[in-house]
Amino acid sequence: MARQGKLVLPAPVDAVEFAAVIVDPPVSEPPIKKASRPEIVVGSVTIRLEDGASAARIGAVARACAFPT
Fold this sequence. Notes:
Keywords: Plasmid. This protein is of the alpha+beta class. It has a domain at 32-69. The chain contains one helix and two strands. The protein has one helix at 55-66; strands spanning 39-42, 45-48. It has a two-stranded antiparallel sheet with strand order 1-2. Strand 1 and strand 2 (45-48) form a beta hairpin. It is elongated. The mean pLDDT is 82.
């Protein structure tokens, strides 16, 4: 019968069954390290740009990192 998808199981003791739920207290997140200059992280590589880098410069570097080699 199991091969036909008709697995015979004993009837539950109670009409309703409950599962225990355990909730852990929230874990505090580590403090965010403030960077003095923009950083782009790709895998294990961190690219640190110059202070005051423009949005165009940051975008250009990010686009260059997105292309496969």
